[in-house]
């Protein structure tokens, strides 16, 4: 049985990735971080929640899922005053198989084994595997969008373009610098932006994203970085969607589909 200090250290190690998962699941830094905070509060009230056998990450995500289910799974307000993205997400969520998105993101984005996905979600391995397959099919279907790729490494840019094109989306351009990103965004007004953090000529993708969001506050942007923990601190404005380098095709497909799922800017194919 781990002592309290070991539990605290385990939580600190895995908390950035719990935030990433929670943000992707809810489509919002605000709501995702609030769910992560609720998970920590539950653990502080009962440290035995982290005493069960298994990897610390599995235990932490299991507690999160208990919190997530208790709060109704959407994690966002859908009352009359809700934002358009939240209303769109609520309507789309009603059409999806329950728990399929969760299983897909746990397996593909967070890289849990299918056995661990089942443990986290309190279901069988067979059911977890079925939910992953259903989640991939449901999220990838029906949302054709125009996507701007902002990436200064040609091979990575080509990979990203091939993956999103295979999903049925249209790549409107590939920017390599901050200034190119702003110019291409203004010209094409894409439904989604894939944004590398460090760009050619030393410019910043994060600054380009900030400039874009000042103009269009509901613009979905997926950040791509080799240092995800720097954008998952929960201490400032940070991205809701993030892909870690090196990435897999499945991670890109799942994250792109999830970001568009929450966006009022994406349209049915």
Index terms:
Butyryl-CoA Dehydrogenase, subunit A, domain 3; Rossmann fold; 11 helices; 7 strands; 54% helix; phosphoprotein; CheY-like_superfamily; PhyR_sigma4; RNA_pol_sigma_r3/r4-like; CheY chemotaxis protein or a CheY-like REC (Receiver) domain
What does this structure look like?
With 269 residues, this protein is of the alpha/beta class. It has two domains: 136 residues, PhyR, sigma-like (SL) domain (Butyryl-CoA Dehydrogenase, subunit A, domain 3, Up-down Bundle); 126 residues, Response regulator (Rossmann fold), CATH 3.40.50. The longest helix is centred in the N-terminal third of the chain and has 23 residues.
Please give the share of residues in helix: 40-55%
Give the overall silhouette: globular
Measured on Cα atoms, how large is the radius of gyration?
18 Å
Structural class call reads alpha/beta
Short characterization:
Helices cover 54% and strands 11% of the residues.
Strand and helix layout:
Layout: H1 4-26, H2 29-45, H3 56-70, H4 84-93, H5 100-109, H6 114-120, H7 125-140, E1 143-144, E2 146-150, H8 154-166, E3 170-175, H9 178-188, E4 192-196, H10 205-215, E5 221-225, E6 241-244, H11 249-261, E7 267-268
Parallel strand pairs: 2-3, 2-4, 4-5, 5-6
Antiparallel strand pairs: 1-7
